[in-house]
Amino acid sequence: MENKKYRSGFATLIGRPNVGKSTLMNHLIGQKIAITSKKPQTTRNRIQTVYSEERGQIVFLDTPGIHKAKNKLGEFMVHAAQDALREVDLILWLVEPAKFIGEGDRAIAEQLSKCETPVVLVINKIDTVKKEEILTCINAYKDLLEFIEIVPVSALKGENQKELLDVLFRHLPEGPMYFDEDTITDQPERQIVAELIREKALRLLGEEVPHGIAVVIEQMKERPGGKMMDIDATIICERDSHKGIIIGKKGVMLKNIGTRAREDIEGLLNTHVNLKLFVKVKKDWRDSDLLIKNYGYDTKEQ
After folding, report:
1. Is residue 181 included in any domain, yes or no?
2. Most buried of 60, 85, 170, 217, CB within 10 angstroms?
3. CA 101 to centroid of chain Cα atoms
4. Structural domain of residue 196, as residue ranges?
5. E-strand stretches of the chain
6. pLDDT tens, position by position, 60-78
């Protein structure tokens, strides 16, 4: 490291909802920190993760997808994404390999054109199309903005991950080590645990319950000896009908959410977990400043 230039900096991942930002970030750092699902707006907070190696350190900011806000929570999410553009050294704009540019991506391009931060265009999900379609996509986007590089990847399959890291280190400035080498996120364990539970709920509940759920960790306590962690968590929903769906017939749905979440939480904490889930209704919480803050989405932090 003494002989080589140590490069470091902040890179934000932006793009429309469900384009694969969290999946890519998880793959790059080699551990699941951000939750993923096929539903848009899965990521709500700005999540910071750290990739360290001998060339330097990249601090990734995974942001909520940029979309038209329908409530106060939506406004919070859009502000979180937009703020990140001004505070970083590089922007990674993720798009899908489409033949034409949609309205949502054109709106993002317009925002980026007002921003002085260098932009890398990352064409994700290349595993879903033929090679010639990737070239068509590159041709469609290349004149939209002045990109410093265009990199096709598959976040899901890990394709071109090394090439993307090479590009980032090539364009990052020389700088200090911001975090210890073994740091992978600034997220508190409680927050990651809550998000892992929310992910399983999003994945298992299908389209029946929309995004009106939050998860609150009521208790997280290690037993003497350190071989078991007791966690009590509450899933918050907006309607009584949603509560019934989340619990399911004879409690089957809630049990499934708990079982799947527990597996991921045990992997995260590296210990056995006793997870108890409860469900509460808080009507229209996504339009309440107080409840949004109580459930971990503090607009003042953005």
Report:
1. no
2. 60
3. 23
4. 189-301
5. 7-14, 47-53, 56-62, 90-95, 119-123, 149-152, 214-222, 228-237, 272-281
6. 886 655 445 555 655 656 5
DSSP structural state of residue 5: P
Report how far residue 120's alpha carbon sits from residue 27's, in angstroms, rounded to the nearest whole number.
18
Whole-angstrom Cα distance, residue 234 to residue 178? 35
* Average pLDDT rounded to a whole number, residues 244-261: 93
| 145 in the same domain as 225 | no
Residue 203 lies in a domain: yes
Residue 22, domain member (yes or no): yes
Which residues, in sequence order, are CB contacts of 27 under 8 Å at separation 6+?
A: 155, 158, 161
What is the distance between the alpha carbons of residues 57 and 204, in angstroms, rounded to a whole number? 36
Q: List, in order, residues 6 or more apart from 17 with CB less than 8 Å away.
A: 40, 41, 42, 64, 65, 66, 67
The residues pairing with 247 across neighbouring beta strands, listed in sequence order, are none
CB 291 within 8 A of CB 237: no
- Are 41 and 91 found together in one domain? yes
What's the number of domains the chain is made of?
Answer: 2
- Strands (E) in 186-271, as ranges, are 214-222, 228-237
State the pTM of this model.
0.63
Q: What is the pLDDT of residues 30-58, one digit of tens each?
A: 766 555 545 444 444 556 788 999 999 99
pLDDT tens-digit series, residues 124-145:
999 999 988 999 999 999 988 9
Residue finishing a domain among 110, 144, 171: 171
76 and 126 in one domain?
yes
b/e map 231-262, b = 16+ CB within 10 Å? bebbbbbbeeebbebbbeeeeebbebbbebbb
> What is the token pair recorded at 91?
């922007």
